[in-house]
Automatic annotation (TrEMBL):
PANTHER family: BON DOMAIN-CONTAINING PROTEIN
Name recorded for this polypeptide: BON domain-containing protein
Region (Disordered), start-end ranges: 52-80
Domain BON: 94-162
Compositional bias ranges of the Basic and acidic residues kind: 52-62
Recorded superkingdom: Bacteria
Length: 163
């Protein structure tokens, strides 16, 4: 019987060693992270590239919109500046034209043509000075002045003469 115990012991030891080894291998395998496959790495790289391309496209579109807005603003400012410059250059001519048109219209009126009415125009604002034969003629002179294009206001300083 003694022989049986000796022969079972080495087998038992071998089984124990195998079990412990299997357990150790199993535990060490649990601690390892599984490396991604080549396909998984390729998919990840493609996804990151597509994401970067979408972000770059969004930034480019935003930059284009900002540039377009700035160009439009610059064009509007240039147009406004050109109009301002043209208007400033034409103010003198426009005032002179206004004065001439009012004077010509007053000369055509039978009641107002006989009297001397001074017409002064500055930036579209007209001042009428001098005598008027009647209150009706005074008001008609103001209406004639207001009817001319470019007139923004009329300061009627005509004085009705007592005749």
């Amino acid at each position: 019987m003694n022989n049986l115990k000796i022969s079972q012991r080495p087998a038992h030891r071998i089984a124990t060693i195998l079990a412990v080894s299997a357990l150790a291998l199993g535990l060490s395998a649990c601690g390892k992270k599984e490396e991604p496959t080549v396909g998984q790495r390729l998919d990840s790289a493609v996804e990151k590239t597509e994401q970067a391309a979408a972000e770059a496209r969004a930034k480019a579109e935003s930059a284009m919109e900002n540039a377009q807005t700035k160009v439009e603003q610059g064009a509007a400012n240039a147009e406004s500046s050109a109009k301002d410059a043209a208007n400033k250059g034409m103010v003198f001519l426009s005032d002179a034209e206004i004065t001439a048109q009012i004077s010509a219209s007053l000369a055509k009126d039978p009641d107002l043509s006989a009297v001397k009415i001074d017409v002064d125009t500055a930036n579209g604002r007209v001042t009428l000075k001098g005598p008027a034969p009647s209150a009706v003629a005074r008001e008609r002179a103001e209406g004639i002045a207001k009817a001319v294009n470019g007139v923004s206001s009329v300061n009627n300083q005509l004085v009705v003469s007592a005749s």
